[in-house]
Design brief:
Elements lengths: L33 E6 L7 E6 L2 E4 H7 L10 H5 L3 H5 L3 H15 L6 H4 L3 E3 L3 E4 L7 E4 L3 H11 L15 E3 L5 E3 L2 E4 L2 E4 L8 E4 L3 E2 L2 E7 L18 E8 L2 E2 H7 L13 E3 L6 H4 L3 E2 L17 H6 L1 E2 L2 E7 L1 H5 L5 E7 L7 H9 L10 E3 L14 H4 L7 E2 L5 E2 L7 E8 L7 E11 L1
Parallel strand pairs: 6-21, 8-16, 9-25
Antiparallel strand pairs: 1-2, 1-5, 2-3, 3-4, 6-7, 10-11, 12-15, 13-14, 13-21, 14-16, 17-18, 19-20, 19-24, 22-23, 24-25
The structure holds manganese (II) ion.
The site of manganese (II) ion has 7 residues, from loops.
Length: 436
């Protein structure tokens, strides 16, 4: 019995917003993700909204125009002010109360429908923004199949380093270049040393890649010097987005030792705009364990709750559309399907590990999961894996081939959760395009 599931997850619930009842929507009443937006063509401060079907519920308007019941009005000021960080800092109880109130208000038959109808904006008429201020960004490396395949390309005799099964590996990334879906960026230049050359050259990256990841936003922070124990770690989790950790493999190969990636990853990171909450993910929680024979996690990375519910069943996909495909009217094509169930460490373990030495997390910090690749050869979460380091080109529907990304390529990450007895939910899209 999954005690995290409540009446807001009932798959029979429907909304008076008709598009939320479409079986294919990412945003049914059971999801209710939060994001930030501006209405297209209007120069105005950022607003916080909730995705419902193909609409956005504008929480600024909803705070002004709707006679909310007692017990919810105290939560609305930061949301009405467009300050998601302040709401994130309030923690899980506030988030759950908001979810319960929104679920009731947007459900079929709600007495609040006549008020909230006036607070909907079509998603097609908004420009999504970064959902919050991201103070710090850390990228983990929880995809063991990615780590093994990539390790084999760099170190054929020693693919997985001995620390991998003990330490949730990560590096401190760059927050300033995180952008929201729809972002385009210039192909980075940097130092590249070809294998047969004596010295590096300064040139545009020829091995530009994507990475299929999730990003976890921190809700309440912790004080400097006060680690978060694993059985409290999820209290610090606000929600999850898709994350594309764009990577210049040729720059990376030359610079990454001894301190890890630097310019090969700091030029752009794209995230999806809607933060899917832990509550929305509750029906998709699964038991977590390391494979038989692998080391048990050290005690600070282990808890009964993490063993019972630490994994999350999230199907993850990468789609690609080249400039030629776009010009010919060809749709994006799927390159990969993987699942977050294959991650070697859980979100709670990431938070517990990040803070165990005393590091303080802050509201709005973003923790990338690392590339999520499945165990099968076609399930690589990057082109580096799918093309065996550029040696086995992919053929696209247009007849073009790819080893790494070309100018004009658009990469689309998608994700959804499905389970018996639960309403399917999705994450929307994380879209980014490479410019020349
Ligand atoms: Mn990464």
């Amino acid at each position: 019995m999954n005690l995290l599931v409540d009446t807001t997850h009932d798959p029979a619930l429907t909304s008076w917003v008709a598009s939320a009842n479409d079986p294919g929507t990412d945003f049914p009443l059971q999801n209710l993700p939060l994001g930030a937006f501006r209405r297209a063509g209007i120069d105005e401060p950022v607003r916080i909204g909730v995705a419902i079907g193909d609409q956005v519920l504008d929480l600024r308007l909803a705070a002004e125009r709707c006679p909310w019941p007692d017990g919810i009005t105290d939560l609305l000021p930061p949301l009405a002010a467009g300050d998601l960080n302040a709401f994130m800092a309030l923690g899980a109880d506030a988030r759950r109360r908001l979810r319960a109130a929104l679920s009731a208000a947007l459900a079929e038959g709600s007495e609040l429908a006549p008020f909230l109808e006036l607070c909907l904006v079509p998603q097609a008429e908004v420009a999504m923004q970064l959902p919050c201020r991201v103070g710090d960004y850390t990228d983990f490396y929880t995809g063991i199949h990615h780590a093994t395949t990539v390790g084999r390309l760099f170190r054929p005799d020693n693919p997985l380093l001995p620390n991998y099964k003990w330490v949730p590996i990560g590096y401190h990334g760059r927050a300033s270049s995180i952008g929201v879906s729809g972002q385009s960026f210039r192909r980075p230049h940097g130092q590249i040393k070809r294998p047969d050359a004596d010295a590096p050259v300064f040139a545009a990256s020829q091995r530009l890649d994507y990475e299929l990841e999730l990003g976890a936003f921190v809700g309440p922070g912790n004080a400097l010097g006060e680690p978060v124990p694993i059985d409290r770690a999820e209290e610090h989790l606000f929600g999850v987005v898709l994350l594309n950790d764009w990577s210049a493999r040729d720059i990376q190969a030359w610079e990454y030792q001894p301190l890890g990636p630097f310019l090969s990853k700091n030029f752009a990171t794209t995230i999806s705009p809607w933060i899917v909450t832990p509550e929305a993910l509750a029906p998709f929680r699964r038991p977590f364990a390391h494979p038989p024979g692998d080391p048990a996690p050290l005690p600070y990375l282990d808890s009964a709750f993490n063993r019972d519910f630490g994994a999350i069943d999230i199907t993850l996909e990468v789609w690609l559309q080249s400039a030629t495909m776009r010009a010919r009217g060809l749709p994006p094509q799927r390159l990969t399907r993987a699942n977050f169930l294959d991650a070697y460490w859980t979100l709670a373990q990431m938070i517990a590990h990040h803070t165990v030495g005393g590091c303080n997390l802050q509201s709005g910090d973003l923790l990338g999961t690392g590339t999520q690749s499945g165990p099968q050869p076609g399930q690589g979460g990057s082109l580096l894996e799918l093309t065996a380091g550029g040696r086995q080109p992919l053929t696209l529907d247009s007849g073009e081939t790819r080893t790494f990304l070309e100018d004009g390529d658009t990469v689309i990450l998608r994700a959804h959760c499905e389970a018996p007895g639960a309403r399917r939910i999705g994450f929307g899209e994380c879209v980014g395009t490479v410019r020349g």
